[in-house]
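Summary for the steering committee. The consortium agreed at its last meeting that each partner would contribute one worked example illustrating the joint modelling workflow. Our contribution is presented below. We chose a case with several input lines so that the handling of multiple components could be demonstrated. No manual editing was applied between input and output; the record is shown as generated.
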Amino acid sequence: MILGLVEHAGGEPTEESLEALTLAREVAADTDASLDAVVFGVEGAAATDRLGDHGVETVHHVADRRLDTYAPEARGEAVAQLVDAVDPAAVVAPGTTRGNEVLAHVGAVRDLPMAANCTDVDAGEEYELARQRWGGSLVEHARLDAPTALLTAAAHEFSPEPAAERVEPSVREFEPSLDDAAFRVGVDRVEESDVEGVPLGEARVVVGGGRGVGSAEDYDELEDLADLLGGTVGASRAAVNEGWRPHDDQIGQTGTKISPDLYVACGISGAVQHMVGCKGADSVLAINTDPEAAIMQKGDYAVVGDLHEVVPELNEALRSEA
Amino acid sequence: MDTLACIKRVPDTGAKITLTEDEQDIDTSNLGFTISPHEECAIEAAVQQVEDHGGTATVLSLGPDDAAEQLRTGLAMTADEATLLETDGEEWTPRATANAIADAARGDDGGPAYDLLLFGNESADAANHQVGVRVARALDVPFLAGVTGLDVEDGTAIARREVGGGTEVYELDLPAAVAVKEGINEPRYASMRAKMQARKQEIRRQTPERDGGRGTFEKVRLEAPETDDADAEVLGEGPEAVPDVVELLRDDLEVV
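What follows is the complete predicted structure of the assembly.
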């Protein structure tokens, strides 16, 4: 059996979790194994129906109410105990901060190796896998041989397709034995962002600005464009280093990885470290004065020109379209 | 308060990457080396806490003799001490690395010798996302990854991390360990004078044991993925391209 670790928002599995389940289902198919999932939280069981669409036969619902809020160490311990109980050949988690963190706890407490951010897994007696290094600029091919393989799926590398055949999952309550010490780290409170709009990682349109934007004030034009397209503004590392945008806006290897329908890259040269952050975009439109810039090769569409001339004109045209 | 920042020597992260012929490593013959970006922030966070609360900041690295260069950068950023866990340069697994760091960070009583252990969220090169967790579990201290804000008050580390639409706040009793991300601070620039002084400071050297554990994880080879070098479709030059851009956005991409 292969066990998928599913995160959810209000009972709806997250996109990254469905991506991870796609990998988990492939691993299950390789080894002729069944696919189970583990969910946390009082709303976790509500995700069951959707998980059936993705081929999950059994949902292990962790019943400890103390785990309704996120507590990494306790969740890691709970998953480790579930692994002891149901003995999966592999556990597959989303390659998110939480997914990597929880599975790393499992690896630590059960002394197992873990492969983070996998892009391909060929499962047999041992696992041959490919995983991202350098934020995705390099691929590592590796062999993993362990009583239970711990894998996280690189974000936006797998398309969260439903299974060919839907199954009706059964739900099993799992009651881990957790002492209070396991809850020494947990979300104490959540401060809501005063930034309006869709978070960068979830935006369907992203307008990115780089060194070519020239100043913090000049992002106003990009903000307007993002508004007109129902999107969000992002930035390259160079622009963040200049202090024009907060680090939260950074797209790239050490920033956010985006997967919008459209990424409009303005005044961005297209360094490898930036491109690994936006390679999940369906389409990239670059606006740059330099026709030789890397992004003009790596993108899908290009306008050769000064963004300060092109973007205001484009904004005007879009306003008159509305 | 005593802090420990664990760092890694990695090839220059801004450089174009080529591989060695045997595909086992990055070809570093024409590359400089640096500290992983998140880990540079870990040093800054460590020295800031010492500035605020007193105590000492130590930088530690597991790696070859040359990693002393990155430790000296940490000293120039005003860390007080440096420890090199010297290896033959071969890449260690996260588990072996963590066990060696935990051994070096353990005090005489078996617990952590530091109040706050700081890691980068993931190293720029290997990105395994697990050394910090494994060290914390070995030392039995609370741990949080993805930290982008950190304050210490009355023996408690208040750690923040970004989630969609907000910030999660965690309180960790010290001693504790956190893995920080870029954006938590602006690492200080080490002056030439500080760099000169750092060259004279002693680097403590230890030779760690490399231990195994259950299961194996072995690198087979590295691969630089082929990139699509087909040129983008040029829609036009300057503002005159705007009608074509609008048509693309409306008819082909359907985003307006």
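Chain B touches chain A through 86 residues (CB under 8 Å). The first strand of chain B starts at residue 3 and ends at 7.
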